[in-house]
Design goal:
Bound molecules: ligand Z5A
Order of helices and strands: EHEHHEHHEHHEH
Number of domains: 1
Largest sheet: 5 strands, parallel
Number of strands: 5
Distance between the termini: 11 Å
CATH architecture: 3-Layer(aba) Sandwich
Strand order of the largest sheet: 2-3-1-4-5
Shape: globular
Radius of gyration: 16 Å
Oligomer: single chain
Helix content: 55-70%
């Protein structure tokens, strides 16, 4: 089973994934915990490029989109597809829905570009996607308590509002795959809701 976790920054994806990872391990299930962009050494290098704020030039939105998919292609081939072929559970912190929400809804890139990439380079979509949803300010406050901000985290609230509406749109169009979780609840409540759904 391939399970992805989506949402705007600081909503608690990583916290939930760790709890589910521990839960599945206690059940003696074979489970892989991974993330996007990243998940392999090469894809993690691409992640550094994407998140770094130290570029002398502004990264174009098209470059950002293509780097996301370069990392994803590597991640799918090296980690996700082999793990699924071995009947492992894959828990993935963000996947292709983030590209729709951030690059299309957020940055304003065309859906045709995204469709072209998804059709050609994404052989498998998640079986279940948890969308952790909370007001933008709440996630920002949680994330900002950690310190230095990456290139995405430096965006304004208005950008993240567009991203959130992107996730809302995916949810409306894929009610069977995407489950919305109320991320304003405590980590324990979010975990319990995810587990009950699974
Ligand atoms: N991106 C993209 O644009 N296009 C793509 O296709 C992909 C990604 C795949 C990196 O992602 C960036 O890449 C991302 C979108 C872009 N940028 N943004 N924004 P990332 O997942 O690494 O970055 P992130 O979303 O900023 O992750 P995050 O800030 O680590 O958030 P999180 O994983 O959802 O939250 P957390 O680490 O579990 O929790 C944050 C803090 O809140 C932490 O101190 C927790 O202890 C606390 N927390 C967690 N849950 C709770 C609850 N329920 N109550 C109270 N406190 C909580």
């Amino acid at each position: 089973m391939f399970i992805s976790f989506e949402g705007t920054e600081g909503v608690g994806k990583t916290t939930l994934i760790r709890k589910l990872f521990d839960y599945f391990q206690q059940q003696d299930k074979e489970v892989v915990l991974t993330r996007e962009p990243g998940g392999t050494p090469l894809a993690e290098q691409i992640r550094s490029l994407l998140l770094s704020v130290s570029h002398d030039e502004k990264m174009s939105h098209d470059t950002e989109l293509l780097l996301m998919y370069a990392a994803r292609a590597q991640h799918l081939e090296q980690i996700i597809l082999p793990a699924l072929a071995q009947n492992k559970i894959v828990l993935c912190d963000r996947f292709a829905d983030s590209s729709f929400a951030y690059q299309c809804a957020g940055r304003g890139l065309s859906r045709d570009k995204l469709k072209l990439l998804n059709d050609n380079f994404v052989a498998k979509m998640p079986d279940i996607t948890f969308w952790l949803d909370a007001p933008i300010e709440l996630g920002m406050t949680r994330a900002r308590e950690r310190g230095a901000l990456d290139r995405f985290e430096q965006e304004k609230v208005s950008f993240f509002e567009k991203v959130r509406s992107g996730f809302e749109e995916i949810h409306t169009q894929n009610p069977n795959r995407m489950k919305r979780l109320d991320a304003t609840q405590s980590p324990e409540q979010v975990f319990a809701a995810a587990l009950q759904y699974l």
